[in-house]
Design goal:
25% strand, alpha/beta, globular, 5 strands, 5-stranded mixed sheet, 110 residues
Length: 110
Amino acid sequence: MNAKNELFSIEEIEHFVNNHHLAFLYISKTNCSVCHALLPKVQKIMEEFPKIQMAFVNVDNVPDIAGHLSIFTAPVLILYVDGKEVLREARFVHVEQFKKKVEKIYFLTK
């Protein structure tokens, strides 16, 4: 996935989540067609919420993340507010519903 904000360890993930008011993780696998198809849609949604910091994690590069965050499938989308998980979507994400949930959280945290 060669994203500019890709994280490669549990420590990097924890640091990212704990050091941003609004942190969003997009967790995927290398050979996951759903992951690759969903990513551009999620990135487009996140452009509408500039205060949310987005990072990417490839489970193949950080296998311990599965146990650390209780991840059983891919992709997994997790939104954190002040280090606390407030939204999690996995595998088959309804894009419009996801956007509405993010929007609600985003405007409640202003």
